[in-house]
Amino acid sequence: MRISVIGCGYLGAVHASAMAELGHDVIGIDVDEHKIGELASGRPPFFEPGLPEILTSATASGRLRFSTDMADAADADVHFVAVGTPQSPDTNAADLRFVDAAFEALIPHLAEGALVVGKSTVPVGTAARLAARIADAAPHATLAWNPEFLREGFAVKDTIEPDRLVYGVGDDHAASVLDRVYHAAIEAGTPRIVTDYATAELVKVAANAFLATKISFINAMAEIAEVTGADVTQLADAIGHDARIGRRFLNAGVGFGGGCLPKDIRAFAARAEELGRGESVGFLREIDAINLRRRQRVVDLAIEALGGSVNERKVAVLGVSFKPDSDDVRDSPALDVAVQLKGLGAHVVATDPQGIENARVRHPQLEYVTSTEDALREAELVVLVTEWSEYRSLDPVATAQLVSSTSIIDGRNVLDPAAWRAAGWAYQGLGRP
Ligand code: UDX
User: Fold this and answer.
1) Considering the entire predicted model, what is its pTM?
2) Does 321 contact ligand 1 (Cβ within 6 A)?
3) Which among 203, 211, 221 is the best mutation to test ligand 1's pocket, defined by most ligand atoms within 8 Å of the CB?
4) Half-sphere exposure of 62 (CA within 13 A, CB side)
5) Residue 267's pLDDT is what?
6) Which of 288, 359, 368, 381 yields a CA-CA distance of 20 to 30 A from 127?
7) What phi and psi values does residue 321 have, to the nearest 5 degrees?
8) Rounded alpha-carbon distances, angstroms, from residue 41 to 54, 57, 257, 416
9) What is the ipTM of this complex?
């Protein structure tokens, strides 16, 4: 099929590449000339395992092209809109400026029978409004809403082999077109839910709200564990054996971050308020508050570990990206902790396998080093805040040789406390005795 993808940020660049990988003829459109230039040369402007390979092969074969001119999307049968919906600084609601601009720019180019597919995460009610706009300005085209559930670090796999497909449609035709787009996944038996616009929009935010709730639930248990001497990791293992609960997303630590979960739960709460149902998701504010408290907890533990003040003490911060296998530092708990410690006068030396460049743009006041050893050298305290595999596998004996004081805060509960203590370390996890 001929496909356009409008908006080539994280979601759009992955979607365009994955659609080309599936054999479709794809054009990616974005207003950012630099981004389009990089993508056209086969270079993703962010780190995502597996993406460079499929981007390079698709651009080389000619199945994937990029342009800044919306007119180049005109002959596509299906147009995916994958622009960002950032958090409005004042209201926490989703800012729909880029979605509206993309639709207005696309509408004059819609051919007879074209299907426009919204992928962006939007407040419930947006698709119905945009469908009305299309019915008015381009009645020969139709709209579907097809939320995306990809995880950073697994984005290519999640797009090519999704665990479910959700189509919010106004008619059966749109669903059959989407089946052709996703024929490989459909043939592989991927569950497919065909529904109305509002349900499709809500599926996305409900899924993210549920995941955020799971994480904050276990982090709330960590808070209780901290005052009772219980071990939250064993608690998570024990409750996770109940299949109704499940062990995944029950890792207590410094909490969730990234470009989706924090912003999506805030936007959902703001939308519910607008709909007069603020109390229905009032718990999301609590989820957000628990999450932010965990960052503060790590800072408090650092102060405690250094005897009451971090001022002028050397702290090695391991990790700045919001999770491993990503260079994304948006709303990163790790970077937040580093910035807070720096604000308290600590000499913070931060490191990360991929995230330093992005972190430096946001927080140039921090000192960054690329080598883990350089970060650890002479540190009076080590704070592990993103569980990259190289930090999980640090050897406590060898690490002790580098630092000036053997004190570590494991903000992701990924180290073996017994092994670190045996090597002479003062080990402190979150919600662990
Ligand atoms: C998330 C959703 O998983 C995805 O389906 C949606 O499309 C976008 O948002 P992503 O932001 O890539 O994906 O990251 P995810 O793997 O969900 O992790 C989110 C955050 O939660 C990370 O900061 C991670 O460190 C944290 N987390 C995750 C925990 O603190 N504990 C856990 O048990 C799991």
Assistant:
1) 0.97
2) no
3) 211
4) 0
5) 97
6) 288
7) -75, 160
8) 12, 11, 31, 44
9) 0.97
